[in-house]
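Propose amino acids for all 132 sites.
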C-alpha cells in the first residue's frame, strides 16, 4: 500500500478553500513545496513558508491561500496523474481544459512547472494536477 502525499496535500487545500479557511499547514516534501511554489506563481497561494514544529521531527509547509475580495481564488483542484495511472503528455498535447482561468502543474525534466511555462520552454512531462 502506498501513500499519495500529493493527493493528500491537494485535498487539504481543496477542503480549506471550500470551508473558507485562508491558511493551512501541510506536510513537507520537495515535490509538495515545488507544487506550492507553482501555485504561488499562478496567484492561487499568497505565501509558502517551510517550518519545523517545536518538538517534532518533520517539517511542515504553511500556506496562505489567495483571496479575491471575500472569496478564495481556488474553486477546485483535480489530481490527474495518480500512482496507479500515470499521465504523460508531449508539449503539443498540453492544453488547459477550463480555459484561461485554470493552471496545470506539470513535472518536467527541468522541474515542476505550470502549463504556460512548460509550453514556453517546449517541455512535456507528467501532468500532476489542475487548479481552477
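Proposal:
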Amino acid at each position: 500500500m502506498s501513500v499519495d502525499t500529493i493527493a493528500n496535500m491537494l485535498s487539504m487545500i481543496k477542503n480549506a478553500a471550500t470551508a473558507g479557511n485562508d491558511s493551512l499547514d501541510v506536510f513537507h516534501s520537495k515535490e509538495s513545496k515545488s507544487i506550492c511554489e507553482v501555485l504561488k506563481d499562478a496567484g492561487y497561494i499568497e505565501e509558502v513558508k517551510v517550518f519545523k514544529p517545536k518538538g517534532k521531527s518533520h517539517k511542515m509547509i504553511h500556506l496562505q491561500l489567495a483571496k479575491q475580495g471575500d472569496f478564495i481564488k481556488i474553486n477546485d483542484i483535480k489530481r490527474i496523474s495518480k500512482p496507479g495511472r500515470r499521465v504523460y503528455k508531449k508539449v503539443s498535447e498540453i492544453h488547459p481544459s477550463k480555459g484561461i482561468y485554470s493552471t496545470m502543474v506539470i513535472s518536467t525534466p527541468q522541474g515542476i512547472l505550470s502549463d504556460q511555462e512548460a509550453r514556453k520552454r517546449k517541455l512535456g512531462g507528467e501532468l500532476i494536477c489542475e487548479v481552477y
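The chain has a mean pLDDT of 92. The chain has one domain: 5-131.
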